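Duplicate of earlier report; NADH dehydrogenase subunit 6 input re-posted below.
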Amino acid sequence: MELVIFINLTLLVMIAFFLQSKRLHILENIFLYMMLVFFLTGYMGILYVNVGSWKVSSSIDLFIIFRLYEFIMSPLLYLAFFNLFEKMDTKMKKFIVFIAFVAIISSAQFLLVKWEVITFMDWHIILSSITIVMMILVMYVALLLFRKVLRREGIRE
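Output:
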């Protein structure tokens, strides 16, 4: 049951992302997606394999949900944030979008905890929220550096 619901949620996020008008260049979106998958899989792998702060369910259905979250839903939510963040013109709107997306990504992770896809061991959702904020900041710096390279190459104005 959870697998069907999560596949539908993932499809909804994918459709919403692809229908969203994007302010970022296509190369910036591809770069961010690759960086997000790299960092998110590393972060989640460290938490559930090395440190043992998370325990991922051994059920096949729940493990598929975790992988869908790790490779599709979470990176697309971050990408949607960056595309929407670029559209906002005032700092107040950007702050509201920032807070809203931290809440959305945290609630998606909280859903995984409620469905027992992941179990927190010496971890709390606040630590996940802090990690989400740090991930956004690191990805934004990487985006600015990549944008500088694109401008130097004459691809982006």
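Residues 125-153 form the longest helix (29 residues).

Merging into the original ticket.
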